[in-house]
Amino acid sequence: MIGDRVVVVAIALFVTQTTGSASDLSMVLAAQALPLVALLLFGGVWADRLPRHRIMIATDLVRAGLHLMLAALIFAGEVQIWQLVVIEAVFGAAQAFFQPAYSGLVPQTVPESMVQDARAITETVEDLAFLIGPAIATGLVLGVGAWEAFAFDAATFVVSALLLAGVRPRDRGGDEEPSQHVLAELRSGWREVRSRAWVWVSITGFAVSVMCVYAPWYALAPLIARDDYGSAGVFGLLESMAGVGAVIGAVLALRWRPRYPLRTGLLLVLAWPVQDATFALGAPIALVAVLAFATGFGFSLMVIWWETALVRHIPANLLSRVSSYDWMGSLALLPLGYAIAGPLANALGAQHVLLVGSGIGLLMLGATLVPRSTRELTNPEEDLASAERGAPNDRAPDVPAVGSSSTLTS
Question: Which of these, 375, 351, 333, 380, lies nearest to 277 by C-alpha position?
């Protein structure tokens, strides 16, 4: 994760320094995102078929080789934008198989009752990486050189693969499906998604928000930081502030178990588009930094509560497939967002694109709270505590009751 955060910032700073073109940066980012989105569903199928940690080891080694190659090209002074596009496209394809396997592996490391604790601890470590990564990237690219940033990332993948080699995941049980054709397995995963409004509506809302808020931020914020705030390094500073908020949020999740986790998480995430809007308007950097902190804080808690809900309400043998639909749906419009951000900025101005996108994102995130099942999805631990106190159970209507033979419930 440290390496991933280094690369996100390193690519933005390297392309900004090399060509200064928003279109070039958009093209590179889109090249990574497009195969990631296109292959995520297949990654989910294979993660439910094969040992997940072995898939992760293989993709770690592939990505290590890709960024070692890129580091060598930059060091030799031979790198061109088309080479960056090709390398990042293959990198995105490998990540499409890593991510669903990762989502399914975490709950295989602890007892069911400790899933949220495991997610919170894992998220804390990831958020420390989110904090450290941009600072390392900014220092390497602006202070030493871009090739060192990509070489550093390659080394982190090797370390990751070595650590994963020691993982011995437990069997979570669940109803096993007979071996099916890939398309049949994809359909079974889709049935799980569409049967729950809280899942598919949230995915849809984030799909549009990622296109309108996330993509313009990474494609345009470095340029806005350079032109309006005096240094592209301001972008790295804001990313680091978001990392601080994310770490604190993840640590808090070890203790905070709100009765309605998705409702609470979605309300906290509304700070995200507000941060983009204030940055686009040229607000004082102190205010934008506070909102960046709030964005990281809210996202960290939302991710923990969301993934905990999936683990507790999706059958174990379908978890990676549902996770792949989650990732694919949420990122489906990201390549388009990257591809159009640069040209729109050239035509309308980067600040206008970021401001309008943040407004659309705010509306879409608010819309995710419309389904009653999203607002009323409860924490199973709180349900149990309420039952012990004699209080009524507020289980969301589309969550199967305890005892369902096909669904893991608390």
Answer: 351
Q: Roughly how many angstroms between the first and final C-alpha of the chain, as a whole number?
A: 30
Task: Identify the CA nearest to 334 among candidates 65, 31, 122, 116.
Answer: 31
Closest CA to 153 of 137, 170, 177, 166: 137
Would you kindly state where each structural domain of the chain is located, as residue ranges?
A: 2-166+181-389
Please state, as a whole number, how many other Cβ atoms lie within 10 Å of the Cβ of residue 99: 24
DSSP letter at 144? I
The C-alpha atoms of residue 159 and residue 149 are separated, in whole angstroms, by: 16
The low-confidence residues of the chain, meaning pLDDT below 50, are 175-176, 384-389, 391-410
Contact 133, 2 (CB under 8 A): yes
User: 346-390: per-residue pLDDT in tens?
Assistant: 889 999 999 999 999 999 999 999 999 888 888 765 554 444 445
The structure tokens listed for 18 are 């090399």
pLDDT per residue as tens digits for the range 174-193 = 544 555 677 777 788 888 88
| Single-letter amino acid, residue 271 | A
Question: How many residues does this entry show for the chain?
Answer: 410
- DSSP for 205-246 reads HHHHHIIIIIHHHHHHHHHHHHHHSS-THHHHHHHHHHHHHH
Do the beta carbons of residue 119 and residue 308 sit within 8 Å?
Answer: yes
DSSP 7-62: HHHHHHHHHHHHT--HHHHHHHHHHHHHHHHHHHHHHHHHHHHS-HHHHHHHHHHH
Contact 288, 305 (CB under 8 A): no
Question: b or e along 385-408 (b: 16 or more beta carbons within 10 Å of the residue's beta carbon)?
Answer: ebeeeeeeeebbebbbeeeeeebb
Tokens of 237: 């500073």
- 8 A C-beta contact, residue 153 and residue 29: no
SS3 394: coil
56-86, pLDDT tens digit by residue?
999 999 999 999 999 898 888 878 888 889 9
Give the separation between CA 32 and CA 269, rounded to whole angstroms: 25
Domain topology for 2-166+181-389? Growth Hormone; Chain: A; (1.20.1250)
